[in-house]
């Protein structure tokens, strides 16, 4: 009697963690088990391909109770680009291309396909690895709290991040009102204003500053003075990538090899300038990684589950190089090139922007 080899797929999660990753992992595993396949988890994104002790079979007991947990049971990193691996040479960190080794190691795993869960960085690396000789067949699952991936209405993780940010903004109203202050809250999002816009509108902010619209300090101050005359306090939500007209993004430290520059600190800059410009006492805070933590919302659990199961269906039909995406109300698939071509930013003429302006929110322009 001839024995056919069991189909085996791998899954890895790359880039910054996002709530809903575990829902994707669970769905990929369950949909695979139903087909009689095995699932190998690769830890720490593509970095796991350089240390095969970081791979392990995922079984039902590993995934049974993870849908409600934030983070990723597989771990992740935003330093693991095989094409730009940081290596110290003569005391200097330089990028080294280790992609051939990554593909060679992949072959040793005996897997038929990879589910790459990540944002634009991870999906671009997966696509590049698939294009190499004997490259890695993959399907992508769009993840990022920033929601800045093209070709999908929304990425999982975004809804949880917005809910966390909105909850914090809600809480700032009472302390701002008690002290007659302007509270400035900085949210994540890199070069896109999705988190700031959504949490700012839902949290009742008076000013929302997003990277897509350079802001004038004078216009922001004039608006805040008007608001404070009416009700004595105000709330500003600012995206970490927001820029004053003619100015630059606020960054933290120098850019590291193989990584994007870290953004942050615009809230402190605003605190100084708005206090002088309005004469009202200001306080600022940076929400930071709180937005990436905690249990995923119901929406993100469902979206992660739909994405994970759809990714397995793509593999089942041999449809590689695609990314699952939400085209409301359907989960569909698109060539991954469409998602990584450029960043998805907030269209300034989008109806949500128009409505926000209609209800008196100032964008600093
Ligand atoms: O891309 C997700 C994100 O949380 C961004 O919003 C933020 O700029 C960045 O990652 C922070 O990355 P790190 O975890 O390396 O500080």
Apparent shape: elongated
Return the structural class.
alpha/beta
How many strands in all? 15
Q: Please give the share of residues in helix.
A: 25-40%
Mean pLDDT: 96
Instruction: List low-confidence stretches.
Output: none
CATH architecture of the largest domain: 3-Layer(aba) Sandwich
- Head-to-tail CA distance between termini: 74 Å
Q: Please report the first level of CATH classification, the CATH class of the largest domain.
A: Alpha Beta
Q: Radius of gyration over alpha carbons?
A: 22 Å
Q: How many separate domains?
A: 2
Q: What is the element string, with H for helices and E for strands? A: EHEEHEEHEHEHEHEHEEEHEHEEHH
CATH topology of the largest domain: Rossmann fold
Please list the strands of the largest sheet in the order they lie side by side: 3-2-1-6-7-14-15
- Determine the oligomeric state from the structure: single chain
Main beta sheet, described?
A: 7 strands, mixed
**Total helix count?**
11
Question: Approximately how much beta-strand content do the residues carry?
Answer: 15-25%
Bound molecules: 6-O-phosphono-beta-D-fructofuranose
